[in-house]
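Lab notebook, bench 4. The sequencing result for the construct came back, and we need a structural model before the next group meeting so we can plan mutations. Quick request posted to the team channel:

Model the 3D structure of this chain.
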Amino acid sequence: MSGRPDWSVDGRDWPNRAASRFVKAAGFRWHVQVAGQGPVLLLAHGTGAATHSWRGLLPLLARRFTVVAPDLPGHGFTEMPAGARLSLPLMARALTELTAALGLHATLVAGHSAGAAILARMTLDGGIAPRAVIGLNAALLPFEGFAGQVFSPVARLLAGLPVVPWIFARRAAERRVVERLLQDTGSTLDPQGVEFYARLIRRPHHVAAALGMMAHWDLHPLLRDLRRLKPPLVLLVGGADRTVPPADARRLRAILPNLRLVPLPGLGHLAHEEQPERVATLIAGIAEELGLASLVRA
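Done. Here's the predicted structure in token form:
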């Protein structure tokens, strides 16, 4: 079993493969998909995912936008920066450098789970200037109480043991293990969706990147800074999300009165994979509300 996902093997039938390209930025090689025409919409996937998670959504959005969807550092077919600790600031800087290398300026950004935190950090730091930041089951709150005291140290311990990703990847050879992991998010995916996650989770380097993010993720500075986020923050919230509880979005609204919540009843953490048409319509509607009506017509 090879450590890295192999484009010629794992990517042989990768979703939206025709939109894929490989780009050097921030000192390493990225896999990024670019499709469509219109205002630039930057997508950022969550921890442990990759561009396959946009397989249904990207073609729909490409009817209205120039969609830019990278694999985050160490995830999917993007390299891991040498010696990098995959912290939020590092990920934000690296993705900012990628957008600069592509010469594309995002009008809108949409991030799933931890991807929303990366996009918010980029915006706060001036790396991008979108008209709105959209979070899909956004993970923007740090763990509190006992979970906060335990989760990060355990993640750091696991990330520091080179054998752990290999053990985890070997377990993922059993399809039911991957199915159970995905079911625990509150979402139900079709067999194709399960297959693409399985391919990546069976590759230790992909697992190591996910563990590295969890080990070095600190959302306290972001939470303090969100009060000065200038663009509107819109959160699409899956009512059945078991990974980022819907209550987190309500807690955020108590802190950020201008925050807009859009409920997605019955959908789990991977809502954009369960019902891409519904999510695409909501994103197009947000763009129209921002005065981009002429740019988002089907």
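The two ends are 44 Å apart (CA to CA).
Will bring this to the meeting.
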